[in-house]
From TrEMBL:
The keyword DNA-binding applies. Residues 1-58 form the HTH lysR-type domain. Belongs to the LysR transcriptional regulatory family. This is LysR family transcriptional regulator.
Length: 300
């Protein structure tokens, strides 16, 4: 249904007839009459009883009147929101990610975003994998995804950012005898507490996992639970160095040989991002040490 037809319909209701409604809309009476007939034809109902000098709504017309006013009110609210967000005076950006990036880099990006744009809010959605990120974007539940930039991103626009250095954080008793830079193969005999459910992450950790994943003693998707288990000596885990520094200060950090890194970036649906999303992208670029020049998206 065209929005202008909804506007015309409400005007006729409010003015009680075609003539006054046409005057208020600055259109001709025949044009307005034709518009109402077009609306009735598209809906397959009669909206007005045309007996007497004043048009009266039919039952179908009364139902449309309620819906039409809600539509116009929603459109007006949306216009006001767009205007305020365009000036970065209000609004919200919806971001989706999964455990691998829920602390690093997301926390620092959000902190920087709020420092730069204190009138904008952030809503963070959690999912379990890169596929979950794309699903949230596809459904419209989020506008930006933080994702492993080597993961399949289908037809979405992508902005590469930086990469995480991953280290093994191990209780001292498990790290005893291991060098600070340890061959990946040596970790295959170390009990691990990791999230092994995401196939992409599992593939990244393949060199650290024994045959049949026998050294994964706890498969857990909850970061806070993993950190607690490591602190209590249940096993070691693999985390970004930033996370190890902040959350596992009591564990020993073991760098891997060869080094293990995970690239990350942002993904968005095609089209022009909202002003709030552009502000978030700007904060992500600043966090990654990239230039603040105009943002260009490309496919990886």
């Amino acid at each position: 249904m065209d929005l202008h037809l909804v506007t015309y319909f409400v005007a006729v209701v409010d003015h009680g007839g075609i003539t006054r409604a046409a005057q208020s809309l600055y259109i001709s009476q025949p044009s307005l009459s034709q518009a109402i007939r077009t609306l009735e034809k598209r809906l397959g109902v009669t909206l007005f009883n045309r007996t007497g000098r004043r048009l009266e709504l039919t039952e179908a017309g009364r139902k449309l009147d309620d819906a039409a006013r809600r539509i116009l009110a929603d459109v007006e609210r949306a216009k006001r929101k767009v205007d305020s967000v365009r000036e970065l005076q209000a609004g919200r950006v919806d971001v989706v990610t999964y455990a691998a990036f829920s602390i690093d880099p997301l926390v620092d990006i959000v902190r920087l975003f709020r420092e730069r744009f204190p009138k904008l809010a952030v809503r963070v959605l959690a999912t379990d994998s890169p596929a979950g990120v794309l699903s949230a974007l596809r459904s419209g539940n989020a506008e930006i995804g933080v994702i492993d930039s080597s993961a399949e991103h289908a037809t979405f626009s992508a902005i590469p950012m930086s990469e995480q250095e991953l280290v093994v954080a191990a209780p001292e008793e498990l790290a005893d005898g291991l060098p600070d830079i340890v061959p990946r193969s040596a970790i295959r005999s170390v009990p691990l507490v990791v999230d092994h459910s995401d196939q992409h992450t599992a593939a990244l950790f393949a060199d650290l996992i024994d045959d049949d994943a026998r050294n994964i003693v706890v498969d857990c998707p909850l970061p806070a639970a993993i950190w607690n288990l490591v602190e209590r000596g249940t096993g070691a885990t693999v985390v970004p160095r930033v996370v190890a520094d902040k959350q596992l200060a009591g564990a020993r950090q073991l760098a891997l040989d060869p080094p293990l890194t995970r690239p990350w970036g942002l993904v968005l649906r095609s089209g022009l991002p909202s002003p709030a999303a552009l502000a978030f992208i700007s904060a992500a670029r600043a966090h990654s040490g990239l230039s603040p020049e105009p943002i260009e998206t490309r496919d990886w």
